[in-house]
Amino acid sequence: MQYISTRGAAPVLEFEATMLTGLARDGGLYLPEHVPPMTQVEIAALAGLTYEEQAYLVMRPFIGDTFSDDEFRDLIAKAYAGFGQPARAPLKQLAPNHFLLELFHGPTLAFKDFAMQLIGQLFQAALTRSGERVTIVGATSGDTGSAAIEAFRGLENVDVFIMYPHGRVSEVQRRQMTTPADANVHALAIDGDFDTCQALVKDMFNDFAFRDGVRLAGVNSINWARVLAQVVYYFSAAVSLGAPHRPVSFTVPTGNFGDIFAGYIARAMGLPIERLIVATNHNDILHRALTSGGYVTDGVKPSISPSMDIQVSSN
Fold it and tell me: Are 122 and 148 within 8 A, CB to CB?
């Protein structure tokens, strides 16, 4: 599987290089050259499997020869071993035909754990093999930073720097980011909002001398591996509800557009998703962009859902 930039001017990469690169050198995002489809028979066969086995079958076509089958299965098992729910992402029925997908059973209680815990394992395996060391920089409105620090803390080949907007994350998330004592993780409070932090990350990636000098890597939703890991729970939820014989719709709280984009990829793979509904707070740039066709920022308004307080959605 090869990966190309959305802007078309960056080198074509394999999965491992795509994962370790993050943002393409032309400023675009890496995406697979094609989306491998799953047949209805293959989708139906996911029912009754463990989440880890579903993850292996959904993601394997995208990995190429970066990891052997056995190694990839082992890394997935390690990634989700610390989750507090055997089902990993259980469904709770709220009303007839209405279900809540519980994505809070990871170590930091954020849905980002599903991707970060796996990426931590994939990074460590790839870097141990190559002997390289990378510096991860990330911007967060709260949950990404907590999940990234938890996933990468203590790893030998990675230094992590997470920037968060001072005074604009929850107290729980601030403590999750600032209290780990591991020498390789660093949380930096920035004056400004999430978009300020995200702009700093993009500026660092666009400074190629700096980027190459510190071997910069990114784990925000600009990283394809993040999106890929999130594709899995769309399949897991849908087959639990009767897919492929029964279509489903997903309503997704949306900030940077990475999570709902994972649903779009699942649909492109053949999962019968009828509708993907973007749910926003009053920072409704995505609603306005998708309904009007215009992308005009309007300033970030703080809310009780800071992870959605975004005006520049990277994905």
Answer: no
Is the Cβ–Cβ distance between 127 and 158 less than 8 Å?
yes
**CA 151, CA 83: separation in Å to the nearest integer?**
12
Beta strands in 12-143 (DSSP E): 30-32, 91-95, 98-101, 134-139
Give the span between the Cα atoms of 261 and 180, in whole angstroms. 31
Where does the pLDDT of residue 201 fall: very low under 50, low under 70, confident under 90, or very high at 90 and above?
A: very high
Token representation of residue 140: 């967060």
Averaged confidence pLDDT in the chain: 95
Interacting residues of 207 by C-beta distance below 8 A, sequence separation 6+: none
Residues 231 and 238: their CA atoms lie apart, in Å, by: 11
User: What's the CA gap between 91 and 33, in Å, rounded?
Assistant: 33
What pLDDT does residue 132 have? 95
Q: Which helix (H) or strand (E) holds 60?
A: helix 51-63
Residue 56 has pLDDT above 90, yes or no: yes
For 16-28, letters b (16+ CB in 10 Å) and e give: bebbbbbbbbeeb
What class, spelled out in words, does domain 1-131+221-315 have in CATH?
alpha beta
Q: Across the strands, what pairs with 159?
A: 135
Tell me the domain boundaries of the chain. Answer: 1-131+221-315
Tell me if residue 301 is catalytic.
no
Higher pLDDT, 55 or 306: 55
Question: Strand pairing partners for 136?
Answer: 160, 217
Instruction: Check residue 307 and report its DSSP letter.
Output: G
pTM as predicted: 0.95
Q: How far is CA 280 from the centre of its chain?
A: 18
Alpha carbon of 161 to those of 114, 153, 157, 189, 262: distances in Å? 20, 11, 14, 11, 25
Q: CA angle, 278 as apex, 190 and 24 as ends, to 5°?
A: 55
Q: Which residue of the set 78, 112, 202, 301 is catalytic?
A: 112
